[in-house]
Design a protein that fits this description.
globular, single chain, 3-stranded antiparallel β-sheet, alpha+beta, 4 helices, 121 residues, disordered C terminus, GIY-YIG endonuclease
Amino acid sequence: MPVAMQYIYLMRDAVGVRYIGRTAGAAKERVAQHESGARTGRAGPVNDWLRSVGGKFIFGVVEEVHESFATERENFWIRHYRQAGEPILNILPLDTAMPETPCLLCVPDPALTLAERNRQQ
């Protein structure tokens, strides 16, 4: 069975990191969806920001993670950049159960609890 992976990505401009997101699909397709939302007038902080910078932003993948870690890793990066003083547009981390240290590739052992996985990192 193939391993289900997701990408954690960021979008930034000259001011700093503005958005952290995640996708199970191709990262470039996800950013194209953001751009389309901005072009078609969709409301929201990220779309408003994209319109304000006229499409001049940088997009990059921060981390590739197993899908079972995606929410906690997305939250880790939101919190990381927010604590670093970046002008993040994300409203909130989605939960608070996340490790305090980064990992390069989080592939869980299904027998481990979240607390056990966090101790291993």
